[in-house]
Amino acid sequence: MKNILIVGATSAIAIACAREWAKQGDARFFLVARNGERLQQVADDLTARGAQLAACHQLDIDSLERHSGMLERCASELGALDIVLVAPGTLPDQAACQTDPNVAVREFNTNAVSVIALLTPIANTLEAQKRGALAVISSVAGDRGRPSNYLYGSAKAALSVFCEGLNARLFKAGVHVVTVKPGFVATPMTAGLPLPGPLVATPEQVASDIVRAVEKRKDVLYTRWFWAIIMLIIRSIPGRVFKRLSL
Questions:
Q1: Ranges of each domain in the chain
Q2: Are 145 and 184 in contact (CB under 8 A)?
Q3: In sequence order, which residues have a C-beta less than 8 Å from that of residue 62 and are 6 or more positions away?
Q4: Whole-prediction pTM value?
Q5: Span 2-242: which CATH code?
Q6: pLDDT tens string 182-195
Q7: How far is the C-alpha of 5 from the C-alpha of 126, rounded, in Å?
Q8: What is the pLDDT of residues 130-167, one digit of tens each?
Q9: Residues 152, 162, 222, 227: which is the catalytic one?
């Protein structure tokens, strides 16, 4: 039986991942999210698919003082962890972040600081176990600061670098960390945005890539695969040219 902790369990990608693991027939979940009603719907869906549910736990990740209580309950209900998926996040309004520093700080905290705060005790737990896999959803946006979303990108850049160092640290204890960098994904968070259709993945496609990356112990996952090429090109653009582009 795989004991799986999912934080941000009501996100479209997290739901699709949980369903992928549920299909394997040996998954037991501890689900964490901010919206309790939606969280219960996700739990009911998974149990209908044959998964075992240890518990649901309502948590706003920005409430740092509540992290320890959630993890203590998880340890009590689930026991040792085999897989952890950390998937919370928001898509900030860049214009609002430029106008209001309070919005900028709040969004940076949600997408970077709060996630890093939660990953720290999770990492310590996995290190003590000397086994397990930790998948953290970052973004291709963190690969370079583009004017259209540099607040979001800077938060994801911080998270990606944190995970890179964490992976190097936990590798020595037999624990694997995969940094997940999705590109455009058709989710409620991106609904209404003018996304380029051919580059947009479904949550199910991304989830399949994540589950496979965990199994194969990949360090960094670009999903879909072509984003590795796209971001290589974007990172290669000279700064004097890049700053003139509208990306």
A1: 2-242
A2: no
A3: 109, 110, 114
A4: 0.96
A5: 3.40.50.720
A6: 999 998 878 777 77
A7: 12
A8: 999 999 999 999 999 999 999 999 999 999 999 999 99
A9: 152
